[in-house]
Amino acid sequence: MPPTMASTGVKECVGEEYVLGTVILSNGVYKSMEHRAMVNSEQERISIAMFFNPKFEAEIGPVTSLITPENPPLFKRIGMEQYVQDFYTRRKLDGKSYLDQNEAPEWELSNTNAVLHA
């Protein structure tokens, strides 16, 4: 698994797919970071993975306070249930990454006000 920074800000070694939601919510501000740990033969090391998800009824997308005319949404809004289904089935990716597949349509990028009030 590639090393990443978990959404809690705690460095953990998790798969890239687990931080996709953080990238979407932050409108691309937060990126995965390399996990670097010093190996110590004298002391044990413990890693704890923690995951939190919204309810299936929720809609996820870039946080509206991060969206401005200068910083339009990079990703479309999607229902959490659909996000989970798409994520685990990897349907309709057509060779694209999950983030690429969920980029905001061109009309949203050119009409930020429509997204802000949707």
How would you characterize this protein structure?
By secondary structure, the chain is of the alpha+beta class. The protein has one domain (4-116). The protein contains 5 helices and 4 strands; from the N terminus they run E-E-H-E-E-H-H-H-H. The chain has helices at 20-25, 80-89, 98-101, 106-110, 112-116, and strands at 4-5, 11-12, 59-60, 78-79. The chain has a two-stranded antiparallel sheet with strand order 1-2. The longest helix has 10 residues, at 80-89. The termini are far apart. Residues 1-18 and 108-118 have low confidence and may be disordered. Keywords: Iron, Metal-binding. Residues 24-54 form the Isopenicillin N synthase-like Fe(2+) 2OG dioxygenase domain. GO terms for molecular function: metal ion binding. It comes from Dioscorea zingiberensis. InterPro entries: IPNS-like_FE2OG_OXY, IPNS-like_sf, Plant_2OG-oxidoreductases.
pLDDT average, as an integer?
Answer: 69
Q: What is the total domain count?
A: 1
Q: Structural class, judged by helices and strands?
A: alpha+beta
- Coarse morphology: extended
- Count of discrete alpha- or pi-helical segments spanning 4 or more residues: 5
Please indicate the percent range of residues in DSSP E strands (runs of 2 or more): 5-15%
Helix content: 25-40%
Order of helices and strands: EEHEEHHHH
Distance between the termini: 37 Å
Low-confidence stretches: 1-18, 108-118
Topology, number of strands: 4
Strand order of the largest sheet: 1-2
Query: How would a crystallographer describe the biggest sheet?
Result: 2 strands, antiparallel
Cα radius of gyration in angstroms: 16 Å
